[in-house]
Amino acid sequence: MFGTFSTSLQFSNLVLLTRLLLLFFGRRYICYVFNKVRNSKGGKDGIMKKFLVIILSLALLVSSMLMVGCNKKTASAPDSSTPEPSTEGEAKSLIVYSGAGLRKPIEELGKMFEEETGIEIQFTYGGTAQLIGQILTVDKGDVFLPGDVAELEPLREKDKVAEEKPVVYHIPILAVPKGNRADIKSLADLKNPGIKVVLGDPEANPIGKLSEKILKEKGIFEQVEPNIVARAATVNEMFAYLAMEQVDASIIWEDNLVGNDKIEIVETSDFDEYIKKVPIVTLKCSKKPEAAVQFMDFVSSSKGIKIWEKWGFKPTAEDE
User: Fold this and answer.
1) How far apart are CA 244 and CA 265, in angstroms?
2) Which listed residue, of 137, 179, 197, 296, carries a Cα 20 to 30 Å from 118's Cα?
3) What's the CATH code, domain 172-274?
4) Which CATH architecture has domain 93-169+278-319?
5) Per the confidence metrics, is the pTM higher than 0.70?
6) CA-to-CA distance for 315 and 169, rounded, in angstroms?
7) How does pLDDT run across 43-57, given as a tens digit for each residue?
């Protein structure tokens, strides 16, 4: 405000000085022309021509003064039809990308955060690979939660990660429809003839990539592969296959089973060394970095962890 006032004051002084100079030199010029006319000899025609010169000089002087006055008015009175850009509302919303399997807890956390801060959270859900591709393409967004910390590598390579915090564990499990009609007891049973398996797409989500890695390291992927009837882009799709009994087994995350009675876990030690961590990161492309960090801190706070636990996640802070 004070900078604008100072600029307007300087401009006003300049306009005033210009008008005084025009008046001073204009009067001297008119006096000079008048004396020339008075002392000249040339008859009536000559006098008339020089009288016209005086009139034109006066007109020129008045026009110059009016132009300066108009310029002053234009500079000091902004046009109401084109208001100055406003930064108001910049921190009123955040764009948060989240893996589809994290939807339930992160959506509840988003509502709590909005109630406490007034900052709206605009979520985009999907497979991790799909979300990373979107972030790299549009270069827009504030916060990202993938299903596995290892999935951040493409963003790290492009220097897109600003700050990062581990939040909870993602624990893989062997899941079957309620009743376990195929009598699955371990991963090795997935290679049995007639067994139908749905796995995540390794190009789309962390659980798909992890499932393939586990089966290959256990040395049974080639035998299981003929039994894979579908590759799902999200964990939610795999859950639907199981709940509708379209398959006999799948590898999903433990937290996906919270609140359901159509799927059960096959207790096995096959996954003990494959537990993953879910991180939350702020993005360097964020236009509201302070609000992004505020949301990250809220999600990983003790209050936020209670929501994660409610939905079946185990906090990483327990062994830090």
Assistant:
1) 16
2) 137
3) 3.40.190.10
4) 3-Layer(aba) Sandwich (3.40)
5) no
6) 6
7) 545 555 555 555 545
